[in-house]
Automatic annotation (TrEMBL):
Pfam families on file: Peptidase_M28
Protein name, entry field: M28 family peptidase
GO MF, one annotated term: metalloexopeptidase activity
Originating organism: Pedobacter alluvionis
Biological processes annotated in GO: proteolysis
Residue span, Peptidase M28 domain: 180-370
Amino acid sequence: MRFFFLIVFFLFLKYSFAQDSTYTRNVVNTLTSKELWGRGYTKDGMKKAAEYLAVEYQKIGLLPMGNSYPQPFNFPVNTFPGKMMVAINGQKLVPGKDFIVNNESPGIKQTTRLTPIDSLNYQATPSLNVSLKDKLTWSVATEVGEVTTIQLNKKNFTAIPKKISVDIENKFIPNFEAANVCGLVKGTKFPDSILIITAHYDHLGGMGADTFFPGANDNAAGVATLLSLAKYYAAHPQPYSIGFICFAAEEAGLLGSRYFVENPLVPLSNIKFLLNLDLVGTGEAGMTVVNASVYPKAFAMLNAINNKNLYISKINPRGKAANSDHYFFTEKGVPAFFIYTQGGPSAYHDVFDKPETLPLTKYKDLFKLIVGFNQKLME
């Protein structure tokens, strides 16, 4: 009879992980949907994403970290809500695939000839430049420059660009409204000691009226993993409190996490460790831990758990880096790791970072590694 119950228990565990995997995939699909429009600055994409996350927090049973789940703030941003037309040698190009406009560019409407500067760069007019690139990588700007720069996908051009027509609309928003989304599972024994799990939910939004950047690996995967962990900890409260923060405006320069550190909803001294998840949708080639050399004892602990259970093929150590939302916490003395995985599709900051090509290869193993690491931190 005891053996029977053990079999049933392990089958239940297996089924639970299958259910969590389904939930994780559904979260990724929602966050990368056309409705949320790249979780950015046009068509209310970021606002809709924040509202979705607040609803999920409530369903899971998280307590607000402050008076409510959202922590509002604002910042300036350059957006491209409408016209996005570029034609080279009379042929209209596809935004995101054939070209991108530099994020700090002003709007422009011109038709002119192109003068080569070298084999990759062309001068149109003093207010318009063109460059050929091996990869089109977009980002977010918090100011507007004086020159519009168009980047062309080098692989899509066999003929020399000689003439360009552009009609691009930009809109600068000096006080774009955003919000971090913050929740908490209260600790059973030491509620003032807090472990934090973070992931930024914003992405690049849209470029024009018809093109958006899905951001599956960056960072729908991180948010989906965070929500799955929130479900687990809500069902299994720990001695320490476990906090969950989905940051806005990471892509605009880590603005959401900086705002939280400057306006903390919990005392920073109460945070015993922070794990930041960004770009965790792959893993077949291992993972990297930023701040590994800053906190060698914690990194050794993480490695010991991984070596014992063979979760991840390789954990690469990396030093301090201001490359994600862990950074400002570390600067204020909060111990933190930034985890990202390797392998799989190479799409990054482009229109090809899609949910259908996101493998989530090591989701279950990363989940177990994080739970095991947090357990050790509480011993």
